[in-house]
Amino acid sequence: MRRIVYKQCDRLRRNRHATLPLEEAPEPVSPLPDPLASLERAERAQIVHQAIQGLPPHQREAVTLFYISAYSQKEIALPLDVPLTTVQKRLHDARKLLKKRMLIMVKDDIREQRPSKDSRFATLVMQLVKAVNSGDAGQIDELVTQDQNLLETATRVEQFWEGEFQPLHAAAGRGQVEVAARLLDAGANIEAIGGKGWTLLRLAMGFKKMAAFLIERGAEVDIFVAAHMGDTQRVQHLLAQNPALAKYKGPEDHAPLRWASTVEVARLLIDAGADIEGVLGYVVEKGYDEVARLLIEKGAPVDISLAVRMGDAERVRAFLRDDPSLATTPRLILLNKAKNVEVATLLVETGADLNKRDPGHHMLPVEWCILQGHELARFLIAQGAQKTIHMVCQLGDVVMAKELLDQDPSLANLVPKYPHIMDGYAPLHVSIWGSHLDLIRLLVERGASLKTRSAILDLTPLGWAKRTGNEEVIQMLKELGAEE
User: Fold this and answer.
1) What is the pLDDT of residue 92?
2) Which of 98, 209, 221, 327 could form a disulfide with 350 if both were Cys (CB 3.0 to 4.6 A apart)?
3) Alpha carbons 16 and 32: distance in angstroms, whole number
4) Long-range contact list for 235-239, CB < 8 A, 24+ apart?
């Protein structure tokens, strides 16, 4: 009996569950994820997603395919029609940009409660663009010090027709090497892509020093830039790596053939499969006559409008012989496109209207033709074309200017409105561009304001004179009472 009792008591003691007061009991651990940790992960994921969405399209595409869809770099290069090295560079640049932007986004999140943050920041962006346009180094440094985000913020820039651009694009598009260097040193992205697919180097193609500077700083010389530079060897190398680049769409959704400045480059692109349709007009507009002839040899169609723009009098004569009414067709206004006196003569003799304004910019034929040279403009004036104050200021013709100002003194301060090509510029601005000293003095004597600011760059006449660097003009304006 003793043994039975002992064993039973031992069994009861061992099977007894220990108890604690409720306040001393440990908190139960849920198998589900911690809500706070889940919230933090969701917030991090949102920040990453927003940062990726803020990348340039080509970098965003590469990051999404590589990190999210788990494609290899080689698998990404194939559908994108780019070399493997390009994919690697895009991922490298994207990682740097993501790191910087995620830090920026965290800072922005902390500061988002500040009143008028958006309007203040927008004002700073526009101030930086203005400082870039005017080359104000001190103002640039001050603004960037206030907010580093300004460097990579895209906005509408007046010098570009459409799309959003960063301050560095504005500098590249004006050939301002010193300003570009300052922005890059402050942290701006040399591979930033602006509206319509414009890279810095593509925008800088009209400025040799700027282009050379950007290349030296590491900007990618893609097939568009190489084609524009006439770099046959580089184009050949790029096409050997990826023949599909001949059809690749870049700025303004145009293929590289529209950028080709030499016959050799154009031939390489055509042989690689580039489509010649619709290219001839762009080539003619840029003055690449040899490339134009190659395209015609390859079958590019030529109508009378193109023949006029090419200055091809023989073709124009043939078109007019077959159909004289072409010279007066309102939709063409061929006289606007005349490249030389010989072609203009053919059109005038066949009945072209000397004073028919084009429906787009509302400009006279002579206002367009002066862009081709003063000889052509003077020929049309001699034939009876209407004179305008801005046109005679471009010519630097004091006699014509006096004649117009005698008829209407208010012309001294005439500022055309959009869509005229001289939108936002007074006659004095135009005269300063050409350094026409006698004309500058005449305009001021006839009441031209020395305080009128231009639409682009927001510069006074003296500001424009300093920008052109002509000391004689600067001194004359100061003597006449000009101030910035």
Assistant:
1) 74
2) 327
3) 31
4) 235/265, 235/268, 235/269, 236/268, 238/83, 239/268, 239/269, 239/272
Q: Is the pTM of this model over 0.70?
A: no
Decide: 470 and 429 in contact? Cβ < 8 Å: no
Nearest to 62 by CA among 54, 51, 53, 73: 73
Per-residue pLDDT, averaged over 468-477, amounts to 92
What's the confidence (pLDDT) of residue 108?
47
Which residues, including other chains, have CB under 8 Å from residue 119's CB and lie 6 or more apart?
none
Residue 432, CA distances (Å) to 441, 460, 475 in order: 10, 11, 12
Q: Is 193 helix (H, G, I), strand (E, B) or coil?
A: strand
Judge contact between 30 and 65, C-beta under 8 A.
no
**Which of 260, 220, 213, 208 shows the shortest CA–CA distance to 236?**
260
Which of 59-68, 94-103, 350-359, 421-430 comes out lowest in average pLDDT? 94-103
CA distances from 123 to 118, 126, 458 (A): 9, 5, 16
- Are the C-beta atoms of 423 and 362 separated by less than 8 Å? no
Beta bridge partners of 164: 156
Contact 369, 344 (CB under 8 A): yes
- Domains observed in the chain: 45-113 (1.10.10.10), 314-386 (1.25.40.20), 399-484 (1.25.40.20)
CB-hemisphere CA count at 13 Å for 12?
A: 6
pLDDT for res 3 = 52
